[in-house]
């Protein structure tokens, strides 16, 4: 994508004030987390961290509940519950990793490359470690934890990260460690953000959202690339004209659209507007679905545009 197209996307995304406010609210939640678990500013408190405080099923104030759930807006990670159980079972090892990675004066690679793989589920691309580090250093870390995602975003921004690796360190990109790649990619994304007059004023989490929304993974199928067939024998004679008809229609279809649970139904800004928010459990991505009387419009990150495409 050329820079002119990227610039238009930035201008369009910058108009979304609601998302800006949401990130601002979550930033306040982050301050609560840092007060509850002040491990970077007060490392001695790591010593008092108990196994139950690290993770306990059903508890909503544990360290990892905050990391994964309460602060999801500041970077999503895909985990299995037993990974957190592994940290709980190896609490002294985990506390040692916190001490080593949150010390003052370390580079990003030095924070990510310690032996996180000594706990089951914490190795590989080290997404859990990256999320933890981002919560203690939010001003310097753009919360993009998958290496492949960061690489894709830089390609779309016109940045040759492989060439940059050679020029910066003299080392071929492919032989860099996970932490070294994270440090390089994060730095290049930060440079792109800092060098743009609009982006430089954005929160790092807002920049992350912009990248994921506008440069999705090619693994996500595009609706336009496949044949669309009707999937429900609705037998409609007329378009819905009342709020009840719209809700009924959505009740028939929401599971087939990939949103098996209706999480919240609330009143909108007028009597003719009813927002319904559902959770796609297959990808754990949130999607807002706006229903208006007589017409259904889907405002999703997935490639769905209107109900008419399915009928």
Report on this model:
With 311 residues, the protein is an alpha+beta fold. It has 2 domains: 3-214, no CATH class; 223-310, no CATH class. Helix content is 44%, strand content 8%. It is built from 13 helices and 4 strands. It has helices at residues 3-13, 17-36, 51-54, 63-70, 81-89, 91-101, 108-112, 127-136, 147-156, 161-169, 178-194, 204-214, 243-253, and strands at residues 261-265, 273-280, 285-292, 295-299. The chain has a 4-stranded antiparallel sheet, covered by helices on one side. A hairpin with a 7-residue loop joins strand 1 and strand 2. Helix 9 (147-156) packs parallel to helix 11 (178-194). The longest helix is centred in the N-terminal third of the chain and has 20 residues, at 17-36. It starts with a helix and ends in a 12-residue tail after the last strand. Residues 265-311 have low confidence and may be disordered.
């Amino acid at each position: 994508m050329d820079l002119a197209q990227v610039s238009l996307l930035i201008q369009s995304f910058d108009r979304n004030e609601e998302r800006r406010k949401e990130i601002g609210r979550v930033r306040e939640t982050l301050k609560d987390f840092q007060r509850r678990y002040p491990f970077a500013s007060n490392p001695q408190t790591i010593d008092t961290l108990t196994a139950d405080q690290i993770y306990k099923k059903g508890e909503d104030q544990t360290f990892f509940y905050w990391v994964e759930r309460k602060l999801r807006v500041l970077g999503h990670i895909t985990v299995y519950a037993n990974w957190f159980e592994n940290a709980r079972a190896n609490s002294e090892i985990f506390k040692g990793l916190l001490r080593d990675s949150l010390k003052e004066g370390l580079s990003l690679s030095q924070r990510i490359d310690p032996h996180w793989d000594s706990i089951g589920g914490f190795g590989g691309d080290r997404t859990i470690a990256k999320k933890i580090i981002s919560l203690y250093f939010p001003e310097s870390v753009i919360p993009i934890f998958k290496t492949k995602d960061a690489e894709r975003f830089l390609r779309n921004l016109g940045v040759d990260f492989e060439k940059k690796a050679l020029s910066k360190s003299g080392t071929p990109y492919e032989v860099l460690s996970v932490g070294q790649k994270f440090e390089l990619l994060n730095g290049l994304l930060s440079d792109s953000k800092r060098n743009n007059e609009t982006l430089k004023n954005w929160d790092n989490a807002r920049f992350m959202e912009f990248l994921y929304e506008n440069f999705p993974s090619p693994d996500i199928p595009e609706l336009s690339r496949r044949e669309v067939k009707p999937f429900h024998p609705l037998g409609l004679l007329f378009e819905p004209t009342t709020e009840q008809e719209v809700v009924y229609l959505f009740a028939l279809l929401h599971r087939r659209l990939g949103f098996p649970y209706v999480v919240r139904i609330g009143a909108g800004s007028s009597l003719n507007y009813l927002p319904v928010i559902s959770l796609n459990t297959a990808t754990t991505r949130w999607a807002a679905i706006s229903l208006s009387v007589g017409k259904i419009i889907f405002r999703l990150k997935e490639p769905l545009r209107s109900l008419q495409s399915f009928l």
